[in-house]
């Protein structure tokens, strides 16, 4: 028995985007720092993604820093009317490539202006605030000051929509009490399921959920079982993990990144992978 084919599009704010988007992080150098290994290929990947129908690109000015946004502008400006560029704030890069918090209202304001300048935009479609209260996953703590700062920039016309990233359900609720939130970007995958209830709540409210690290946190046994399922489907483990996300909930958007044209084609093909009920059940047991 085949599962119902996944929907191909989803609302992100008031814009309709394809659910398979593109994440620009890997276009920067090693450790997301410095220029790309191959400048021409980086431009080619961006152009190929848009030519294939991708109309949602996730980026940040702290990738590089400044590298991916400048590549996006070089490759794609003037931008297609349907292209939605989403950036994030909340960090800066040290000279040693370290990741440092940048969460004061002044730092967030400077970050918005940096993104606008490097992308060549007058207004950014979506800005995510990425909470940097711990070295890894979400940690409790008020994000009211940061969301309020973005809401003020939104009122000035520099931002259309606001999202949050690396956050807890309590922080999502706090942000939604300040202004409309159009997306939540957290770590989530087949085995890292802590946001199950949050995803369902957001889906009911028409809010997009954008998972990162689709293969993060797997142990060797889980990886081996995923490899076996993927082999039976004639797909790669990454493709199956992404296909599972598309089937998991219609508000999930993918932003898998790559600096390879071949891997880009593999990532875009996941929209055509139909997982039947038996396969979904096997994947759920991971």
Give your account of this protein's structure.
It is a single chain. The protein has 286 residues and is of the alpha/beta class. The chain has one domain: NADP-dependent oxidoreductase domain (TIM Barrel). Helix content is 39%, strand content 18%. The protein is built from ten helices and eleven strands. It has helices at 39-51, 67-76, 105-119, 144-155, 169-178, 196-204, 220-233, 237-248, 261-268, 277-284; strands at residues 9-12, 15-18, 22-23, 56-58, 84-89, 91-93, 99-101, 124-130, 159-165, 181-187, 208-212. The strands form three sheets. A seven-stranded parallel sheet has the order 3-4-5-8-9-10-11, with helices on one face. A two-stranded antiparallel ribbon has the order 1-2. The protein has a two-stranded antiparallel ribbon with strand order 6-7. Helix 1 packs across helix 2 (67-76), helix 3 (105-119) packs across helix 4 (144-155) and helix 7 crosses helix 8. The mean pLDDT is 95.
């Amino acid at each position: 028995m085949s599962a119902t084919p996944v929907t191909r599009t989803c609302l992100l704010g008031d814009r309709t985007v394809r659910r398979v988007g593109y994440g620009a992080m890997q276009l920067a150098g090693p450790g997301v720092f410095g220029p790309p290994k191959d400048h021409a290929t980086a431009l080619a990947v961006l152009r190929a993604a848009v030519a294939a129908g991708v109309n949602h690109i996730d980026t940040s000015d702290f990738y590089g820093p400044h590298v991916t946004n400048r590549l996006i502008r070089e490759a794609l400006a003037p931008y297609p009317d349907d292209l939605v560029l989403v950036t994030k704030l909340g960090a800066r890069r040290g000279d040693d490539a370290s990741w440092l918090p940048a969460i004061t209202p002044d730092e967030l304001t400077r970050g918005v202006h940096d993104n606008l300048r490097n992308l060549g935009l007058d207004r950014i479609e979506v800005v995510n605030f990425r909470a940097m209260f711990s070295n890894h996953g979400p940690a409790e703590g008020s994000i009211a000051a940061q969301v309020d700062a973005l809401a003020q920039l939104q009122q000035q016309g520099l931002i259309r929509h606001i999202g949050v990233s690396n956050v807890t359900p309590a922080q999502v609720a706090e942000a939604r009490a300040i202004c409309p939130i159009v997306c939540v970007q957290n770590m989530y995958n087949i085995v890292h399921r802590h946001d199950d209830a949050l995803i369902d709540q957001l889906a009911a409210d028409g809010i997009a959920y954008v998972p990162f690290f689709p293969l993060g946190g797997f142990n060797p046994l889980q990886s081996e079982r995923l490899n076996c399922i993927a082999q039976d489907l004639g797909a790669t483990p990454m493709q199956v993990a992404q296909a599972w996300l598309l089937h998991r909930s219609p508000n999930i958007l993918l932003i898998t990144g790559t600096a390879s044209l071949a891997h880009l084609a593999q990532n875009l093909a996941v929209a055509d992978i139909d997982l039947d009920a038996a396969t979904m059940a096997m994947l759920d047991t991971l």
